[in-house]
Specification:
heterodimer, A: 306 residues, alpha/beta, Rossmann fold, four-stranded parallel sheet, 11 helices, B: 453 residues, alpha+beta, Porin
Chain lengths: 306, 453
C-alpha cells in the first residue's frame, strides 16, 4: 500500500514537473464548451491563449455525456467559456467535477459568451415540456451566425482581459483584425447564399434561426417533431405534404449528428436537396478557424441550391 | 464788426464738421478697439475649446475602436476577485443576489421525479415476502417520488435537497412514508483541486450506490448491493473530501467520515467509531469511440455490537459510442464486493462466539441502444449472504422505451435461484427458485437531467 501511495505521489509530482512553466505562465489555458467558441477564442486570443473544446465537432452540443475526460481538461484551466442560454447545461456538472475553483460560476474565469447577444425566439408565453426540450431563455445557437461574432468576441475579450489585463490591448487588436477579416467574408457569403433566398428550407433542429435571419433565408419546417423529440409518422406526413405543396425549391439542412437516413428518405420522396452542415466543425484551428468553418457551411448550402 | 461776425460764423461753420468728424473717428476707434478685444477674447475661448476638443479626440482615438459591425456593444462588468482563505473566513450576505432577481426568476432549480414500479410473481413468493421488492409482491407502487431543489448557495458553495415519498414495507406492514433522501452542500472553491461535501448524502461507493433508484440502469438494484447494503444502499450523514489529481488522465480520490447509520452493513451510528470511506476512480478514452472507467472503493465501520465491518469493492464500466452518436451503442459494466465482518454466533450450547464472516458477491450487465428510443440489456447477479450461510444468483433481461429524455418505460423478467428456501413471517410460505415480471414507469419534471458516464 505504501508503495502504491509513493508511486501515485511520484506520478503527480512528475506530471506537475513536466508542465512547461514558462509557457504556462505566458498562455492562458482556456476551455470552450463548443468548437465555435474555441474558434472565436483563438481568433481573439492568438498566441496568448491555449484553447480546447469540450464538445467535439461531430457531437450534438445539446446533450453531451458528462465524462471524467472532460473534467481533466477543466482541472487545470484558467477560464471556461460557455455558450449559455441552456445549450451547454451539461457543462455545469463537468465544472463541478473538475474541482477547479478558478472556473466555477461567479469566478473571473467563468465567461458566458451569450452576454449582449440579441437573443431570438424568446418565448413570450408560458412554456412547458409538452413543447419538447424548449429553451426558455431563447434560441441558443447564436454562434452559427457570423454577423454576431463581433458581439461574442467582445464578451470573450472582456473575459480574457479580466484574467490578463496586461494583454487587453492585444486581445482587442486581434479582435479588430478578426472583425476586419470577417466583413469581406460576410459579403462573400451573402453573394453565395443569394440563390437560396427563393428556396424554402427544412432543418432537422431549429438551430439556424440567427443564420437565416442574417442571410434572409426562409425556414419551412423542422424534421424533429418538437425540440429533442424524434419525429412521429404523422409529423413526417404533414411535413412531406407541406414540402410537396411548396412551389419553390426545398433544401433540407441538417448536422452530421442528425438522422441523415431519414433526411435522405424525405429528400427522395419530395425531390428536395440535402445539405449537411457543421461537417468541418472542430477540424480547423487558429485565427481563421471560425471563418473557415462558416465557409464550409455556406459552401454546403450553396452547393445544395445549385 | 460785421466782418468779424461773418468770419466767426464761417469759422464755426468750417470748424464744426471737423470737430464732429474727429469725435466720430474717436468713437469708431473705441468701438473697433472693443471689437478687436472681443474678437481676441472669443479667439482665446475658441482656442481653449478647440484644444480641449483636440485633446479629447486624441484620447478617444487612442482607445481601441468599436467594430462597425458590432450590433451591440457589451461592456461586461469585471468579475469578482477569486476568494482567498481570509475572504472565506469573513461573514458575508449569502443572499445578496436577490437584488438582481427579475420577476418570476428563481435562484434555484427544482424538479420532480416520479418512479413507479410493479411486479408479478408466484403466490408462494408473495406469502414468503421473498421477492425483489419484499412485502410488495404482485403490486404496482410508487417506489420513489422525489422533490429536488438544487443551486448555488453563494459564489463558494452549492446546495442540494431531495425529499422523497415512497411505499415501504416494514415490520410486516406497508405504508407510504415521506423521508429526507439527501441534503448536502458542496464547497466548490477550496484550493489544490479539492472539494468538500457535507450533510446527508448517497456515498460515492462503487458504481451504482451514488445513483438514485430511478437512475439505475435496471428496474431493481443488483442483488449483491441489496444483500450487503440494504434496499436503500449506503446513505450516510457526514463529510467527504475529494481531490482530482493534476494529471493528464483522470484520477479522483475521495475520503469520508460518517456516522455509520446503515444497519445492514454497519449500524454503530456514532462519530466515536465512525464509518470511514474511500474511493479511487480513473477514466480512459481509447480513441473517440471507446471509454473505460475503473474504480476501487472501501468502507470500514462498526456494527451496533461494536464489531468491525469492512467492505471493499472494485468496479468497471465500458462504453462504445460510435462517431456522431448521441448515446452509447454498447455499455458493459460490473462490480464486485467483498465483506469482512465480525459477528456474534451462537454455538450448539447456546453460548456466543466471535466469528469472522468473509463474503463475496458480484454483478455484471451489458446493454445495447441501437436507436435513441429503445434500450435492451441483461444483468447477471451472484452473491453470498453477508451473515447467514447461503447464496443466490439471478439473471434479468430487460427492455426500455424512452419517448423523450423525460419519460421512460421499462419491462424486465427476473429469474432468481437461492441455495435455500426463504421463509416468510409466521411460516406462511417459502421460496427458493422464483420468477418475476418487473415493470417501471419513470418521469422527470422540471430541471434537465445530466447524463453521467
Amino acid at each position: 500500500m505504501r508503495r502504491l501511495i509513493a508511486i501515485l505521489l511520484l506520478a503527480v509530482l512528475a506530471a506537475a514537473g513536466t508542465q512547461p512553466a514558462a509557457d504556462a505562465a505566458a498562455k492562458l489555458r482556456v476551455i470552450a464548451t463548443i468548437p465555435d467558441l474555441k474558434a472565436l477564442t483563438e481568433a481573439v486570443g492568438g498566441d496568448l491563449v491555449e484553447v480546447e473544446s469540450l464538445a467535439r465537432g461531430n457531437q450534438n452540443p445539446h446533450d453531451l455525456e458528462v465524462r471524467p475526460s472532460l473534467m481533466v481538461k477543466l482541472r487545470r484551466a484558467d477560464a471556461v467559456i460557455v455558450n449559455g442560454l441552456e445549450l451547454d447545461q451539461w457543462a455545469d456538472a463537468v465544472i463541478r467535477g473538475a474541482n477547479n475553483a478558478a472556473v466555477v460560476p461567479g469566478s473571473p474565469g467563468y465567461i458566458d459568451a451569450s452576454r449582449g447577444v440579441p437573443v431570438i425566439d424568446v418565448p413570450t408565453t408560458r412554456v412547458d415540456r409538452s413543447m419538447g426540450d424548449v429553451h426558455p431563455y431563447g434560441n441558443p445557437h447564436y454562434t452559427l451566425d457570423p454577423g454576431l461574432a463581433p458581439t461574442v468576441t467582445q464578451s470573450i475579450v472582456e473575459g480574457l482581459a479580466r484574467l490578463a489585463p496586461e494583454h487587453r490591448a492585444t486581445f482587442e487588436r486581434q479582435r479588430q483584425a478578426f472583425v476586419a477579416r470577417l466583413e469581406p467574408a460576410l459579403g462573400r457569403w451573402q453573394t453565395a447564399l443569394a440563390p437560396l433566398k427563393d428556396a424554402r428550407i427544412v432543418v432537422y433542429h431549429n438551430n439556424l434561426g440567427y443564420f437565416f435571419k442574417r442571410f434572409g433565408l426562409t425556414q419551412l419546417g423542422t424534421i424533429e417533431d418538437r425540440p429533442g423529440i424524434p419525429p412521429s409518422p404523422a409529423h413526417l406526413a404533414r411535413l412531406v405534404r407541406e414540402m410537396k405543396e411548396t412551389r419553390t425549391r426545398v433544401v433540407i439542412v441538417l448536422e452530421s449528428w442528425s438522422d441523415q437516413k431519414l433526411a435522405g428518405r424525405l429528400a427522395e420522396e419530395t425531390g428536395a436537396r440535402v445539405a449537411i452542415i457543421n461537417t468541418k466543425l472542430g477540424t480547423f484551428s487558429g485565427p481563421e478557424a471560425y471563418i473557415n468553418s462558416v465557409d464550409a457551411n455556406v459552401t454546403a448550402l450553396a452547393q445544395a441550391a445549385r | 464788426m460785421r466782418a468779424r461776425i461773418v468770419a466767426a460764423v464761417v469759422a464755426v461753420l468750417v470748424g464744426l464738421p471737423a470737430w464732429a468728424v474727429a469725435q466720430e473717428a474717436d468713437t469708431l476707434r473705441r468701438e473697433i478697439e472693443q471689437m478687436r478685444q472681443q474678437m481676441q477674447n472669443a479667439q482665446r475661448e475658441y482656442q481653449k475649446t478647440l484644444d480641449a476638443l483636440t485633446e479629447r479626440l486624441q484620447r478617444l482615438e487612442a482607445r481601441p475602436r468599436q467594430a462597425a459591425t458590432a450590433p451591440i456593444v457589451v461592456q461586461a462588468p469585471p468579475g469578482p476577485a477569486p476568494p482567498t482563505l481570509t475572504d472565506l473566513a469573513k461573514p458575508h450576505q449569502p443572499f445578496s443576489l436577490y437584488g438582481e432577481r427579475r420577476q418570476g426568476q428563481f435562484l434555484l432549480d427544482f424538479g420532480v421525479v416520479g418512479d413507479f414500479v410493479g411486479n408479478i410473481t408466484q403466490r408462494n413468493v408473495e406469502k414468503a415476502t421473498g421477492g425483489t421488492f419484499a412485502g410488495r409482491e404482485n403490486r404496482f407502487f410508487p417506489r420513489e417520488v422525489e422533490l429536488m431543489f438544487f443551486g448555488q448557495i453563494d459564489p463558494y458553495a452549492r446546495g442540494e435537497v431531495r425529499i422523497e415519498a415512497a411505499e415501504e414495507f416494514e415490520d410486516g406492514a406497508r405504508a407510504t412514508a415521506v423521508n429526507l433522501a439527501e441534503a448536502h452542500l458542496t464547497l466548490l472553491t477550496l484550493p489544490w483541486g479539492t472539494q468538500a461535501k457535507l450533510g446527508f448524502l448517497r456515498n460515492r461507493f462503487g458504481l451504482l450506490n451514488e445513483r438514485h433508484r430511478e437512475a439505475l440502469p435496471q428496474t431493481d438494484q443488483p442483488n449483491v448491493l441489496t444483500q450487503f447494503l440494504g434496499e436503500e444502499g449506503l446513505r450516510e450523514s457526514g463529510a467527504e473530501v475529494s481531490w482530482v489529481a493534476p494529471l493528464p488522465f483522470y484520477l479522483e480520490a475521495l475520503a469520508g467520515v460518517f456516522n455509520g447509520d446503515n444497519e445492514d452493513a454497519f449500524g454503530r451510528g456514532s462519530l466515536k467509531a465512525p464509518l470511514v470511506t474511500g474511493r479511487l476512480r480513473t477514466f480512459f478514452e481509447l480513441g473517440e469511440a471507446h471509454a473505460l472507467q475503473l474504480g476501487v472503493s472501501g468502507a470500514s465501520g462498526e456494527t451496533p455490537d461494536k464489531r468491525r465491518s469492512t467492505l471493499a469493492g472494485v468496479d468497471l464500466k465500458y462504453k462504445l459510442t460510435p462517431e456522431g452518436w448521441r448515446h452509447a451503442l454498447l455499455t458493459v459494466a460490473g462490480e464486485a464486493l467483498y465483506s469482512n465482518r465480525r459477528v456474534d454466533v451462537f454455538n450448539d450450547a447456546g453460548a456466543g462466539e466471535d466469528r469472522t464472516r468473509k463474503r463475496f458477491g458480484w454483478y455484471a450487465y451489458a446493454e445495447v441502444q441501437p436507436w435513441q428510443r429503445w434500450v435492451g440489456g441483461v444483468r447477471y447477479d451472484w452473491t453470498q449472504f453477508p451473515v447467514d450461510p447461503g447464496r443466490e444468483w439471478a439473471v434479468e433481461p430487460y427492455i426500455a422505451f424512452l419517448p423523450s429524455e423525460f419519460l421512460r418505460f421499462r419491462l424486465a423478467y427476473k429469474h432468481t435461484d437461492r441455495s435455500h428456501r426463504v421463509t416468510g413471517p409466521d411460516d406462511r410460505g417459502s421460496a427458493r427458485v422464483f420468477d418475476e415480471i418487473l415493470f417501471q414507469a419513470t418521469f422527470f419534471l422540471g430541471a434537465h437531467p445530466a447524463h453521467p458516464f
